[in-house]
């Protein structure tokens, strides 16, 4: 819980400062890249959280991984985090930063689940369906053959389930209730 609170505070400060300096979009791209590297390399997260490994070695690892790939602004944050012995929350900060970035700009992530890849027309249609709920819609596409057909849209706590599986379950439930009631 403590790491979450620390990550929130650093991310909030970073969003505000990056916006003030006019590098918000660039830092968001950096944070997405950092998060991706941490997700793909679980050993990196373990090293950053390991109290036995010296801080200067952790700083060297972060510099080697991100020094030329992120902006100087973002690199200064990574340096600050290692100086403050907060390198253990780099992943959490990058994740929280992106969440706050989307919130600040009114960007909503919409997850669409279908049985097969969607076309550009369908993608545009899904975005237009959800456009009234957000300034900008970021579509995340998932494939799940178990829904049999149709689609499921999710955004925050809103869900539109037009899957064949759900419709069949509803028909089954209604049929069962009718049989029991007669």
Descriptive labels:
182 residues; alpha+beta; Peroxidase, domain 1; 2 domains; elongated
Q: How would you sum up this structure in a few lines?
A:
With 182 residues, the chain is of the alpha+beta class. The protein is built from eight helices and four strands. The model has no long low-confidence stretch (mean pLDDT 90).
Structure description:
The protein has 182 residues and is an alpha+beta fold. The chain folds into two domains: 2-103, Peroxidase, domain 1, CATH 1.10.520; 106-181, no CATH class. The chain contains eight helices and four strands. The chain has helices spanning 2-21, 24-40, 42-49, 55-66, 72-83, 90-105, 120-130, 164-181; strands spanning 107-114, 136-143, 152-155, 158-161. Strands 2-1-3-4 form a four-stranded mixed beta sheet. The termini are far apart. The mean pLDDT is 90.
Write the SSE topology.
Blueprint: H1 2-21, H2 24-40, H3 42-49, H4 55-66, H5 72-83, H6 90-105, E1 107-114, H7 120-130, E2 136-143, E3 152-155, E4 158-161, H8 164-181
Parallel strand pairs: 1-2
Antiparallel strand pairs: 1-3, 3-4
């Amino acid at each position: 819980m403590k790491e979450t609170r620390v990550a929130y505070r650093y991310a909030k400060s970073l969003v505000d400062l990056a916006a003030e300096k006019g590098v918000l979009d660039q830092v968001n791209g950096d944070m997405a890249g950092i998060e991706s590297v941490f997700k793909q390399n679980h050993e990196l997260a373990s090293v950053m959280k390991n109290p036995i490994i010296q801080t200067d070695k952790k700083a060297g690892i972060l510099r080697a991984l991100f020094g030329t790939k992120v902006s100087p602004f973002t690199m200064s944050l990574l340096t600050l985090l290692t100086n403050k012995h907060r390198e253990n929350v780099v992943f959490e900060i990058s994740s929280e930063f992106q969440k706050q970035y989307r919130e600040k700009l009114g960007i909503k992530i919409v997850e669409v689940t279908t049985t097969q890849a969607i076309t550009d027309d369908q993608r545009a249609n899904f975005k237009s369906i959800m456009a009234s709920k957000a300034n900008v819609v970021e579509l995340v596409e998932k494939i799940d053959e178990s829904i049999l057909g149709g689609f499921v849209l999710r955004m925050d706590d809103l869900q539109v389930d037009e899957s064949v599986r759900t419709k069949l379950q509803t028909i089954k439930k209604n049929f069962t209730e009718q049989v029991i009631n007669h």
